[in-house]
Amino acid sequence: MQPKKIWNAVREAYAQYDRFMEKQGFGIVLAVCVLIIGASAAYTFYFREQLAGQTVILEDSAEPAGVQEMQTLAQAQELVSSHSAMHTAAPKTVPFSFAQPVEGFLDRDYSMLEPQYFAQANYYRLHPGIDLQAPYGTTVHSCASGRVMNVWQDHELGLCIRIRHERGYEAVYAGLSDAGYVQAGDPVAQSQIIGHVGNGVLAEKDAESHLHLEVWLNETPVDPVELFLGILQ
What we know:
233 residues; alpha+beta; 2 domains; 3 helices; 38% helix
């Protein structure tokens, strides 16, 4: 086809479109506007319906603020009660300890296997306690809390105090120069003063002044040093 004919055909087509738009263009534009408005209205209505449905679900499932506060308070009270019950059921215990009754040197140690020689009495015998050397008149303290069982003058051990301590232990504080602080039946606390160092043990009178200490458990002597060190409990 010749270019001139093509150009004439294009001009004719455009002229026909122009005449059509002059007659029908307003109607088409109006129809398009109506379609757009209708689509927008439908979308807006659908969106509002969805949002309203979600709001209703949330309102139905939500609990009043007061109910939530009551539940929180109840949970807190239950937690406090559980902690209180736990502390009541498992009270704290104080570790058992056996303190040295005087600040002194170990002059003669505990020996229940090999007899020791006592020059004053000129014999060998077992030693069911320890001798703690200290100046005459040094204060003697209770090794642990307990109760005084007896205060007496013994022929061999001199002036003595027997105290029943914790966990079944009994201690004899012997060779004292004074025991006027306590009497039978008195409760004593750990480190409480009960007497003064002397030198009253008959077989040990050749030694320096000291406290003769014996500790017994179920009528069996035990080494007081092991109690001081926490080896025995």
